[in-house]
Fold these 2 entries.
Entry 1:
Amino acid sequence: MDWRQKLVLTAFVIAVAAIDWAEAETMVTGTVFCDQCKDGQISLFDYPLNGIKVLISCADSSGQISMSREETTNLFGNYVMRFDGTPDLSNCNAQVSGTGQGSSRCSAAGGPAQKLRLMFRMFDIEMYAVDSLLSEPAEPMSFCPKSRNPVPAPARPTRPAAPIAPRGSPPSFRFPPLPPLPPLPPLPSLPPLPPFPPVPFLQEESACPHQNWTMPQYRCYWRALNPDSKVAVVFGPIAAARYGNDMTLWGSLQGRGDPYKTLLREATTSLLNSYNSLEFPYHTIGVITHTNLALRGSTRNVLVTALRFMRANSGFGRVPCKLTPCK
Ligand SMILES: *[C@@H]1O[C@H](CO)[C@@H](O)[C@H](O)[C@H]1NC(C)=O
């Protein structure tokens, strides 16, 4: 295993251990965005859609639909579907199937269906992620940049069925390709996992900006994360090279004034939000992966990722911050 896989696994173990699951269970999560510019990808103009229906359908070996289920997205544009047991969902697709009651101006057409990707299977728990689904308005919005190099329709090449191995790539956003990096030195063995408080995830929508997380009255919400944990340990060696070995998570929340400090502040905030609410648009592992991808890219990548985290942490102006003072 290279360090990235270890990191992925660690984060998933943390995430799963924090959930109070006793029975075998399978969970599928994903997000629907309004592709306002109709460019087939998620840009800064795009926003998560709530009240959109997503249909998951599975075909058996003869191509007949053997199972389907529909769920509606929440305020974060997220949907979560749970299945009893651990069925094999690798032959299932997710697609936008309707707009529900939301009279969205972004419901003229749905983007392509996406395959379910197994991200994780352990202790009778399976987790599948779905790449972001898109819904489009009838016409691109007037403020959209005139396409210099038009993006072809988001035709998805049929993916080979093979790579269903656990993978770290997060479901939510597609980044422009980044230059390849020299091989990374192996990570020294990972530190022991933090002990898990018995508090389960909040099964509600909540997103809190960074200011809230430094308020002493909410200290008990730090759950699995210790404020004194080192950024280098939580985010890995690329972050260590950028922020040094002494920066703590608490310290990272104070950062401001340059894109890199802003990225780390918002990433730590998203990490806290992801632990606190199962509904938060980023999984714990997604936060870590996106942060690392951004740090390997240009300053623009850093800024764009910081902005995305910031928007999610602000609840996109719709989702409240649900914290009550600790006793
Ligand atoms: C979170 O912080 C914001 C800005 O400081 C504040 O307006 C809001 O009341 C805080 N929310 C909670 C739940 O403390």
Entry 2:
Amino acid sequence: MHELSFREVWKARKRIEPFIQPTPLLYSEALSEQTGANVYLKLEHDHPTGSFKLRGAANKILSLKEEDRQKGVTTFSTGNHGISVAYMAAKLNIPCTVCISNHVPPAKVNRLKKLQARVEITGVSQDDAEARCVELEKEEGMTIIKPFDDKEVIAGQGTIGLEIMSQCPDVDEVIIPLSGGGLLSGIAFVMKSIEPAVHVTGITMKKAAVMQESLAKGKPVILEEEPTLADSLLGGIGTDNRFTFPMTRMYMDEGVRVDESQIEEGLLYILNHHKIVIEGAAATGIGHILYSDFGEGKNIVAVLSGNNIDHEVISDLIHKS
Ligand SMILES: *Cc1c(COP(=O)(O)O)cnc(C)c1O
């Protein structure tokens, strides 16, 4: 059993309230007409950092004791999690070190530096960067802010579930992009606690669906990464996973894998019909919806998890289409 309680999610909501606004739930007329269901979009790209990861990072950092805050925080993520940790640390005037390998592209490094993070370049791989984080924890007493396998992080993402339940109490199904499983664990825990019949669907790209493979094997597995438009869903779940593996096993009713063309289609669909730019990871759920039959009148909520996509990537997609 995991140890997350509903009270922890309410506490998270209270903690992050001064920094994070609730996001809208948008009724999608286009997707509803297309599918016959009532499809709603939870606009989790609509945060100052461009992704929901701000909720978990904020809750974790705000829950640290004052003396630990002073010693600083560290992470080895250069993606949405790293950006959110750096953003929150800057807001609260807390020292933040992001450890990266020398393979990280300059654009990402510059974005982190703009957020006032100290960027430490060590080694040639993600593993080297992680090892440096552990050193900083030991030597300087910094706190490692994990991207998903942490109770406060999961509780932070769970606040999305509270919002969905108040914005659409009749929800039948929630569709959630899945990587490490922090997003799905938090939302599903909250929604199933309120209404166990809510159907929870987790979506991953076909290439390297680590959580889904791990669930099939009954233990965390390691898969080789392959390039995908849903780059924010890359990465392992950790062989020492404590929370998100058992929680995903407990709460996910259905795991779906979409191929790259579906992700592209989902992304362009949201751009064309809503004039909203989302990244590949967020488009996985839409790619699934476009090929699904939910049944007339069902209330479906899809989580649009982020919008951090390079302009060249999106312009290539538009020209190709
Ligand atoms: C991190 C991330 C996800 C997946 O979240 P997990 O908690 O790792 O499952 C989905 N979409 C975007 C945009 C992300 O940054």
